[in-house]
């Protein structure tokens, strides 16, 4: 499948446009259709304590703000830092504050800012108009200092910012995250520099580690020079070491097991080979998806188009959301809308992302490409005058906008709390875990998640009706309650309490013990992690169990796992069988369940 080298011409076009725009420009606050800073600031004062506050984290497929309210990224890409302008485009024509105000007025809640590593070299912005007081506070600043201004002002208006490492340098996109001129060490150092620079500024909620990895980048192949999944782990953990509150956005690649998709859009391997970060609840998977104005693809000419598209998206990235594995963010999607097929594609994709009025923040997040009109293969939300809006294109996105960060109806009138969860029960225990399950609550719009409390303290959140509490003390009694919440942030009364006592030690056999932990559970499936701990030095190990309630294995990683009837055996691989005394390793699996998902009793033997 051929993929065009996209957007390289944007830098050349930007300089050409800037040279004419600088001859005579009008301050954006005076331009027709542009909101004034005063209006936007006033509009967001009331939002200061609304959904979206603080740093964000994840729970299953949902994003949550610092108050554990579900939120949805519904934003726009504003490119330019990654080009030879070293600053967002359009500042030759307008004030940056009026641009951000207009984004907010149109109902976008997040800005994705692409950049290249060149901006860490003290680059000076090109083509910033400061005549007549426009962009006055940007005079004399380097590129990173301009970025500071944009992040800070976006925060005052209530918008969030995601930084996107778009290119190693301003010359163009790279297939891998490093080049001969920009090695991996530079990439990681620059990412951690940004994480440190914006620590304490929750307007900047996270970093997209690298834009559009593509062949020869692989996913899960194990070659550290080309395995994008492993590189994302190295970089993501470095970012989180610098600022553990940030979200880490990891794009897909191009190919997996012979199946090819858009650059950055193939996440087929993430289920089998998930990205593993040292800080939990910080991973968001990201994809890019485009229409025929970028490139023709086989699925556009399928006789069933556009009815075939949900299946295409399910296969490549939607399954991560559908199976409650992790949040998915469509970091780029766009089209000129000139072709009928593109119009059908965009309409189908918007519905697939799940309209906010119907689903609230229990939806797929997105940032449209682009705000800029000078993207040659898609155009933008702004027209070529950099002021008026392409209302046709903007209207396609109306159903999935979320100016209130995702509450149904944009955060307006829903004040009804969900019903109280019933039937809370302990479904299994080990020496360090308690597994819980309950009956789903109901709501006038939709229940979007549950908060789990141990002894009155919040210990976790989940989108499903089960949860496993970990890190507990053996032979100890614990008490739990659960509350349901909806997309508007309404919270139910606490459920009746249930008590459970952990066992006296890990389940095991000769030479090792094994512990079971449900990571995610949804209506028909689940993922789980099994931790193996050596009681004597081992060269290999095997864990076995019998499913107690009809579970069926569908996939595994970090072990050879096989099922025969209800019996399952998991055997170590060459790289994780050798363990010292008290050393541990883990493997993961995915399965289906019906009627119940009771934790199995594990047996572990080592040699």
What is the compact description of this entry?
The protein is an alpha/beta fold and 607 residues long. It contains 10 helices and 29 strands.
Features:
607 residues, 29 strands, alpha/beta, five-stranded antiparallel β-sheet, eight-stranded parallel β-barrel, disordered N terminus
Share of residues in strands: 25-35%
Mean pLDDT: 86
Radius of gyration (CA) equals 25 Å
If helices are DSSP runs of H or I spanning 4 or more residues, what is the number of helices?
10
Description:
The structure is a single chain. The strands form seven sheets. This protein has an eight-stranded parallel barrel with strand order 4-5-6-7-8-11-12-13. A five-stranded antiparallel sheet has the order 21-22-23-28-25, with no helix packed on it. The protein has a four-stranded antiparallel sheet with strand order 17-16-19-20, with no helix packed on it. It has 607 residues and is of the alpha/beta class. The chain has helices at 9-21, 37-45, 96-105, 143-157, 184-197, 228-242, 309-322, 340-353, 356-359, 391-396, and strands at residues 57-59, 62-64, 70-71, 74-77, 110-116, 160-167, 204-208, 247-251, 255-256, 259-260, 283-290, 328-334, 365-368, 422-429, 434-439, 447-454, 457-462, 466-469, 477-486, 498-501, 507-508, 512-521, 525-534, 541-546, 552-557, 560-564, 567-571, 584-592, 603-606.
Write the topology of this structure.
Blueprint: H1 9-21, H2 37-45, E1 57-59, E2 62-64, E3 70-71, E4 74-77, H3 96-105, E5 110-116, H4 143-157, E6 160-167, H5 184-197, E7 204-208, H6 228-242, E8 247-251, E9 255-256, E10 259-260, E11 283-290, H7 309-322, E12 328-334, H8 340-353, H9 356-359, E13 365-368, H10 391-396, E14 422-429, E15 434-439, E16 447-454, E17 457-462, E18 466-469, E19 477-486, E20 498-501, E21 507-508, E22 512-521, E23 525-534, E24 541-546, E25 552-557, E26 560-564, E27 567-571, E28 584-592, E29 603-606
Helix pairs in contact: 2-3, 3-4, 5-6
